[in-house]
Amino acid sequence: MKTKATIIFAACVWISCMGQAQIPGTTTLDLEKAARIAHAAHERAMQDEWNVAIVILDAGGHMLYFKRMDGTQLASIDVAIEKAKTALFYKRPTKIFQDRLAQGEAAILSLPDMMPFEGGLPVTIDGVVVGSIGVSGVTAQQDGIIAAAGLNAL
Fold first, then answer.
1. Residue 34, C-beta contacts closer than 8 angstroms, at least 6 positions apart
2. Domain-embedded: residue 143
3. Edge-to-edge order in the sheet of strand 128-136
4. Is 110 exposed, middle or buried (0-12, 13-18, 19+ CB in 10 A)?
5. Measured distance CA(8)–CA(10) in Å, rounded
6. Of all helices (H) and strands (E), which one includes residue 63?
7. What is the pLDDT of residues 25-71, one digit of tens each?
């Protein structure tokens, strides 16, 4: 009985690992692309001496790359993550939610995993959302400029 349980457990582990492997022919956001996006965003932030946190998430919402510039407030880390999650989960820029809130649509605040401030963008490759970028540390508009610069590097 113990051997049967061990075999079943091993099979479950093997199956779960297979689900995490890249499927041939699918588009993914790899570490090299994530680093390119983050580097371009960092360069744009440095241009105006803006201290920010930059987060790149993969398609599953897991952190693939993170960079916090010296002097960036600690709260910006979590805000950048939430912006990236919002952009990924809803497949749209977080500015859309900021604009809707500004128009008085307060009900969006009840949506799960939603940060209504500019600075989060989905990363799309070949028409498929493969991840996201979130930036926080300066104004929402400036965060958006930095995120867009990062995305443009891809």
1. 56, 58, 64, 65, 131
2. yes
3. 63-68, 53-58, 128-136, 120-125
4. exposed
5. 5
6. strand 63-68
7. 568 999 999 999 999 999 999 999 999 999 999 999 999 999 999 99
pLDDT in tens, 94-105: 999 999 999 999
The model carries a pTM of 0.83
How confident is the prediction for the chain on average, in pLDDT?
Answer: 89
Q: Residues 53, 135: contact at Cβ < 8 Å?
A: yes
Q: How far apart are CA 151 and CA 115, in angstroms?
A: 19
Q: Which domain holds residue 141?
A: 25-152
- Residue 10 within a domain: no
Q: Which two tokens stand for residue 32?
A: 């090299």
Query: How many distinct structural domains can be found in the chain?
Result: 1
CATH of the domain at 55: 3.30.450.150
